[in-house]
Write a structure and sequence with these properties.
The protein is mainly β. The chain has one domain. Helix content is 4%, strand content 54%. It has two helices and 15 strands. Strands 1, 2, 5, 6, 7, 8, 9, 12, 13, 14 and 15 form an eleven-stranded antiparallel sheet that branches. The protein has a two-stranded antiparallel sheet with strand order 3-4. A two-stranded antiparallel sheet has the order 10-11. A hairpin with a 2-residue loop joins strand 3 and strand 4. The protein binds copper (II) ion (CU).
Length: 282
């Protein structure tokens, strides 16, 4: 009963901040030949925004290590586009499970910190291999309402989960490369290294504090091997860079806990202007 009330019904406003650092090594043979002025991966504006994975290929022999940090914050609850208060939820939103007729525990805020460590290596000019591991810290704040009905606030509680997330492996395959325009395929696999059995103590409407399995959003992985196909286009001229990426996450099978997360389809576009060779705005 209480577990059902912990489900993150709809995310409200979401915001994020991100930082990234990357280090590229290339063997002297492949280091800047100086023949053309095409941006390579060491130019800041050759990169897409941080949320975009696998946006660039490397030249044969190049190795890149990267660290990215992302912070995401989701606050409030919505039904459709309308913001709803915790009081409205506990008096109107039906509890789909056994127990009180409406939800009695309402999530109010969720934050996630992601630390991502990545490595890229290009065996040839046309193929770049990627491996990425991540460490996640998640927190969710809730309000618990007293008893089976009514709007008396009993108290608040925060659940936490942290640990390694799913590991991503990918091959980026060049499909088209001419000055100013590049297209590559992303062939990715997400390996279920993240835990799906995280639990924490919750405050129930009866005032007890049992330890329960956390909802899907608070788990650290999907629990399934996921295929991540995609297509990336990048373009540039003297000072501008732009691009678009389609990426899907297709779950395979059912995880050990007997569920499968939904498939995801994302389309991202970006543009950036180069002020200095080492900084860009996007
Ligand atoms: Cu790279």
């Amino acid at each position: 009963m209480k577990n059902s009330a912990l489900r993150w019904s709809r995310s409200g406003s979401a915001m994020g901040v991100a930082v990234t650092a990357a280090l590229t090594f290339s063997t002297p043979t492949f280091a800047h030949d100086g023949v053309d002025h095409e941006p390579d991966a060491t130019n800041a504006y050759a990169h897409a925004p941080i949320g975009v994975m696998g946006d660039h290929l490397h030249k044969a022999g190049e190795v890149m290590f990267s660290y990215r940090f992302m912070h995401m914050d989701m606050e409030g609850n919505r039904i459709g586009n309308r913001s709803v208060s915790p009081e409205e939820i506990v008096t109107t939103v039906p509890n789909r499970f056994a127990g009180p007729p409406t939800l009695r525990v309402v999530p109010t805020e969720m934050t996630m910190d992601m630390h991502m460590v990545g490595a890229m290596y290009a065996p040839t000019d046309d193929i770049t291999l990627m491996l990425m591991g991540m460490y996640l810290e998640k927190e969710m704040d809730h309000i618990t309402f007293q008893g089976m009905a009514g709007t008396t606030r009993l108290g608040t509680f925060t659940t936490k989960s942290s640990g390694i997330g799913d590991t991503k492996a990918a091959a980026l395959v060049n499909l088209h490369d001419e000055p100013g325009h590049k297209v590559h395929a992303n062939i990715g696999l997400s390996i279920p290294t993240g835990s799906i059995t995280e639990s924490d103590s919750v405050l129930t409407p009866m005032g007890t504090r049992p330890t329960l399995r956390l909802p899907y959003a608070m788990q650290l992985g999907s629990g399934t091997y996921d295929l991540e196909p995609g297509l990336t286009y990048t373009g540039y001229d003297a000072n501008w860079g732009w691009g678009a990426q389609w990426r899907s996450t297709l779950r395979t099978g059912t995880n050990d806990e007997g569920y499968t997360l939904g498939n995801k389809h994302q389309l991202t576009g970006w543009a950036s202007y180069q002020f200095q060779p080492w900084i860009s705005l996007s």
